[in-house]
Design brief:
Layout: E1 7-8, E2 13-14, H1 15-31, H2 41-48, H3 55-58, H4 62-85, H5 93-110, H6 112-122, H7 136-151, H8 158-177, H9 179-186, H10 192-214
Antiparallel strand pairs: 1-2
Helix pairs in contact: 1-2, 4-5, 4-6, 4-7, 5-6, 5-10, 6-8, 7-8, 8-10
């Protein structure tokens, strides 16, 4: 009698691991369009085309699932930021900001759900424990600032660097995480390429002059 394989997909992965991946993928899709308090396990099951009861085998509650997803998203953002900053040291300010934005916009094009999940939930927490894993969001800003300071050191006071980083990242998160709304306001509905170009141009307009100042350049 032929034995039933304990592996799934013929790639040496246990079925349990594959099921967890399916759950996380479905959860990412749902939480990218519904804030934490509005989403449900049933919605996630429908998105992944599996019985929602299976979720509890890996995540006993929606809070545990969202906390795990937010941790994954935040770690992903930190790593993406680190990758976007590689090789920028030594470039002139205009070259550094252009390359960073091109890379980060490429990342967002490939992973649009990440910033949407953060944007949908960032204003809904009236206290730190209102949303599972919410504390990871400010940690992202701290970790990415540290990465920025290491990858692109500038001869400026620490408080000025922190202010620049805070403003840059918060505006970029808003532009991309709430991109659909911004496109409607700008009359660009359905014109993703135009909006991407607008984001790059606007971020450069706003943040290149202060970057030059931080890096000790005049004019």
């Amino acid at each position: 009698m032929r034995k039933t394989s304990s592996r799934a997909g013929g790639r040496g992965r246990p079925k349990r691991e594959l099921t967890r991946e399916r759950i996380m993928k479905a959860a990412r899709a749902v939480f990218a369009h519904h804030p934490y308090h509005s989403a449900s396990m049933r919605m996630i099951g429908r998105a992944g085309k599996f019985d929602h009861a299976l979720i509890r085998y890996h995540f006993p509650s929606k809070a545990k699932l969202f906390g795990a997803l937010l941790a994954e998203v935040c770690d992903e953002l930190v790593e993406a930021n680190r990758s976007c900053l590689e090789g920028l040291a030594g470039l002139p300010p205009d070259g550094a900001i252009a390359r960073y934005l091109d890379r980060f916009l490429d990342y967002h094009d490939d992973h649009p759900a990440a910033l949407r999940i953060i944007t949908l939930n960032i204003a809904l927490a009236d206290r730190p424990d209102a949303i599972p894993g919410y504390r990871r969001i400010p940690e992202v800003l701290t970790r990415t600032r540290e990465t920025f300071e290491q990858a692109l050191p500038v001869p400026a006071p620490a408080d000025e660097v922190a202010r620049y980083h805070y403003a840059f990242n918060n505006l970029l998160i808003n532009f991309l995480g709430a991109g659909s709304c911004q496109m409607i306001i700008l009359g660009m509905k359905g014109r993703d390429a135009d909006y991407r170009a607008w984001v790059k141009k606007t971020m450069t307009f706003l943040f290149l002059p202060p970057l030059k100042k931080l890096m000790g350049e005049s004019g």
